[in-house]
Amino acid sequence: MVQLNLARHYTLGLLSDIPDEKWFWMPQGGVTHVAWQVGHIAMAEYNLTLARIRGILPQDRELFTIDNFAELFGRTSIPQADAANYPTPSALRETLTRIHAQSQQELPALADEKLDQPSALAKPHPIVTTKLSSLLWCAQHEMIHAGQIGLQRRMMGTEPKW
User: Fold this and answer.
1) Which of 33, 35, 89, 116 sits at a 20 to 30 Å CA gap from 70?
2) Distances from the Cα of 95 to the Cαs of 20, 44, 155, in angstroms?
3) Is the dihedral of CA 81, 39, 78, 136 positive or negative?
4) What distance in Å separates the CA atoms of residue 11 and residue 62, rounded to the nearest whole number?
5) What's the pLDDT tens digit per position in 141-162?
6) For residues 64, 11, 136 and 50, what is the CA-based torsion angle, rounded to 10 degrees?
């Protein structure tokens, strides 16, 4: 959980001074925007710290702001520049916070002896095979996308954070 919290702290720091109107900016020839990065991080945290650890529960729908969240932000989704296709930056921040809070609530109950168990989802993942690898990859994955947010900040003229 320490790595998850460090990654989230870093990501939130990068997001803290990006104005909402820049969340959907895509550089010339660019393939993504900050809003997609944030939604993707939230979707990945859900999949890697909740769904792959304990399975998908009916109440998980309450974690997301819209029904097609996975379509918009899943690993095979393609970011689009049109903000009308996405939740607002505020809604994305709230979803990111809600999913992280839920994982922080549930993960302390995960017994160490269960970390070597296979993922609770039958669908294979290209990197994750156990519950432990799911948690480790979640933090690493977030840092990859935080790096992309950092690059986008620089390209839009926002000063580096650190």
Assistant:
1) 116
2) 15, 12, 26
3) positive
4) 23
5) 999 999 999 999 999 988 777 7
6) -10
